[in-house]
Amino acid sequence: MSDFLSLVSRITREHRRSFAIAIGGASVYAVCTVLSAFAVSRVIDEAITPRFEDGKVGPQSVVLAMVLITAVGIVRAASVVTRRSYAGITEWRAAGTLATSVIDRICKQPVWWLRTRMTGEVISRMTIDAEAAVAMLAPLPFASSVVVLLGFAAVAMLVSDPILGGIGLCVIPLLAGVNLRYQRRVDALFARAQEHLGDLSSTVHESFEAVTVVKAFGAEEREARRLSRVAERLRDARIETVRFRSRFESLLDLVPSTGIIVLLLAGSWRIGEGQMTVGELGGFMYLFTLLSFPLRIIGYAVSELPHSRAGLAHIDGLLGEAMLTTMVPDKVHGLGVEIRDLRVVPHGHAEPTLDIHHLDIARGACLAVVGETGSGKSTLVGVIAGILAYDGRVRVGRRGVAPVFQETFLFAATLRENLLLGQRRSDEEILEALRIADAESFVTELVDGLDTAVGERGVGLSGGQRQRVALARALLADRDVVVLDDTTSALDPQTEAVVMRNLVGRLGDKTLVVVTSRPLTVSLIGNVVFLVEGRVFDRGTHEELLGRCPRYEALMDSYETDRRER
């Protein structure tokens, strides 16, 4: 019981007013249910029975019976509307609160935390699990009012006839036993089904994300089999849960129905003995019949409890994860990039992937970051951009950093919206950024120009076009430092040369940091830092490193040879 109360308190904590109104409406319904049984009993004894026995009935009795039943019915109907309305309001507001808490936690976690999670899994926490967690709120106000109803009904039945009242009350512990047994068995079933539902959501999302790879490699059958296996596990878990729940609901029907038969037999005998009237038996049976459905609602609420527990457990699992450190470089006026005693040890690694004692890039300077695969180039970009945790001191220009990552992302919006991301810029400013990125020509050829919808992830543009749009977006952000992580990899050498010349010559006092592997790009930038195993191995101009660093020369030769062969 304490677990149940704490669960309800947790879910309704921020919506107690609407929940209390729903409980109040349900309680009024319970009282009216008991009163309606007395009304039925009075109508039978004072209106119906006299009509059969005496052949007539006074109009006053008929009017009084009609007014009594109508008044009780109106109040009862109003309480039902109140209960259902505010129960629904509480349910969906609570689901929104849980989903918002998940979204807030996700937004506060650093980017590298998100990369350790399946996107579908994260989405299911704020949708499927949030809805599951509040599933018990819809029947709960009605179920809680049954406590009030049982109290009034127990007194009313015992006062009406102690023997029949005792028989009727025996049904309550039977139903309580059925509910308790059901709850113990179904908890594990619901938890397993909820886990499989999250797996299915993650797998489907991943399959849609990889649709290009799947179709290109003809792996449709493989993906279909993989999705089928996950769906079959969910189906089997759901079938097992439904099978168990159907047996439970059959018992919920059987127990009250058996009680009604026993009460009719006993009541007929009591009437024959002159111990009660037909009206009293009619009111008694009406009250017991009204009780049977609310008692089922208790069972329904109990049946949703494991569902809610499973959903809330998944949400708590995400919310209970420790907040990981997000490091944002200090912003200093008049500065380019300044790094001191930098160490980056990713989660799950024993050794640092980046270990730089000292690295300065002057304001307005251009620097190429070169290194072999796994040397820490992208990690350095992540540190400067403020999306990776690190130890040490990193400072950048006051207006911050505009990164362009290796994986270009465009929203399913217009080209203008992707370039501005909510900023206000004139068309001339936008076109100037597109000119620097050598993107103006293809943008002006689009049917709707800047207002062309680029599709999901920019599917309407080629890889090179997406990279140039992302570069123009970074320039429009007007930050002190622009960082490119192999951003021009999809461009041909001639286009790349045009873009790099524009950047080097037209960025003014902005600092440019470019991760690249192309000798032509490196030669255009001039200044180079050469990373080996996360450390600064050498630094100088491109010509200086070619002359004094054999390892750098070998790397540049391998890139150039590879380019010629391709």
Computed structural class: alpha/beta
Q: Look at the structure and give the mean pLDDT.
A: 80
In the CATH hierarchy, the third-tier topology of the largest domain is known as ABC transporter transmembrane region fold
Instruction: Specify the number of helices.
Output: 21
Radius of gyration: 36 Å
Report on this model:
- By secondary structure, the protein is an alpha/beta fold.
- It folds into two domains: 2-188 and 246-319, ABC transporter transmembrane region fold (Up-down Bundle); 330-565, P-loop containing nucleotide triphosphate hydrolases (Rossmann fold).
- Helix content is 66%, strand content 10%.
- The chain has 21 helices and ten strands.
- The strands form two sheets. A six-stranded mixed β-sheet has the order 6-7-8-4-9-10, sandwiched between helices.
- Helix 2 (16-54) runs parallel beside helix 7.
- The longest helix has 53 residues, at 220-272.
- It is elongated, with a radius of gyration of 36 Å.
- It starts with a helix and ends with a helix.
- The mean pLDDT is 80.
How do you describe this structure in short?
The chain has two domains: 2-188 and 246-319, ABC transporter transmembrane region fold, CATH 1.20.1560.10; 330-565, P-loop containing nucleotide triphosphate hydrolases (Rossmann fold, 3-Layer(aba) Sandwich).
